[in-house]
Specification:
494 residues; two-stranded antiparallel sheet; 10 strands; globular
Length: 494
Amino acid sequence: MGCQALLLLVFLSLGAAATLRPGLKTFGSLHLSANPTSNPAIANNYSVLYFEQKVDHFGFSDTRTFKQRYLIADKHWQKNGGSILLYTGNEGDIVWFSNNTGFMWDVAEELKAMLVFAEHRYYGESLPFGEDSFKDSQHLNFLSSEQALADFAELIRHLKKTIPGAESQPVIAIGGSYGGMLAAWFRMKYPHIVVGALAASAPIWQFEELTPCGVFMKIVTQDFRKSGPHCSESIRKSWGAINQLSSTSSGLQWLTNTLRLCRPLTSEDVPTLKGWITETWVNLAMVNYPYATNFLQPLPAWPIKVVCQYLKRPNVSDTVLMQNIFQALNVYYNYSGQAKCLNMSQTATSSLGAVGWSFQACTEMVMPFCTNGVGDMFEPSLWDLEKFSDDCFNQWGVKPRPHWMTTLYGGKNISSHSNIVFSNGDLDPWSGGGVTKDISDTLVAIIIPDGAHHLDLRAHTAFDPSSVLLSRSLEVKHMKKWIADFYSNAKWQS
């Protein structure tokens, strides 16, 4: 389910937080990676397989190949009248996505479905050049959404040729976050291979000239504003408090002690501190789920409400305000009470996943983000494509192509496509770049009130709000129609 990569993109764009390598600043990303075996109950119910993929699908002289990992679960699959649900893997370990996409497991029996989870090239174990895959831009040259979609197409072709009964069944693409973008684009680019797509929390319009750069952080701010009186105002004032306190050596030492940081804070660390705190607020907005989770960190139900209990008083001294900020941060980083100190290098990103996504962000996935400190609760930060481009060149020796995604996938001119459901939670900051209104009878938007990042793809629980139950039922209704239409057309053609 995505979060880590897109989060990283926010902070690549804002120039916040720590560096992966000297030169290019990063923050979080779209998919928020965690323990790959976070749900071992599911982990035992699939087979792990590998498929030989071409490194370059779009040239003919390069014959190199690599092994793409994929998972298959066929407990509820029926050869007669069944279907295939393909999870379009995004920027991380496919086992983790499998374990955190409970919706697919929940509907498998009803749809008589085989579940296939396909790992994205350059992530998890699907490394085209092994340990050298991230060595330089030459080795990373084949990391793109376009190559990944071709991988998915080739994998489905392979499965239909080798699994008896699969060749005559409809395939539906399902994904969340960047994976949701891939699911939608897969249906657009390969409509003869997938009959429809569920694109959950998929910000396919979070690109230049399609979505205002400030929308994302405004939604984060709204989440905090709605969750407690003066909560967002306290956070907005905290940046000035940090600036004031960090201006002296004694203040830096006081911040180190008060925030219980694992290492002493220096004046050079202050931008990293701000980026780390910013990422925490963004992470909380994305995983503001109605029940306790262990998705990123052990968190209570509605974690922003819990955080905001400590941020009710914005008009206090700088020292008191930062003591309150610590209590709020502690909810995210130490809800279990086991952390002895707070580590600024502890973010949601995984090392290789973050490196891979930083390259994608520096090439095709150029999403502008900005803040103004008025409509949002963050320090002002302008979108500066030239600086972003220079940082990318210093990091990878490549320059971003801001318009390529719109050229490749159509931007907002997608009305000629069909059979895509775009779902977005209204609490999810990525909804700002998502499709939130119906485009046609078959390009449908589902809004989930009180829904955070791809809540609908998570497993069913007793604490699910009625809004997500309704959303899932609508999604299944659309998928059943796509399946029925497929078989009806096949029968007519025969």
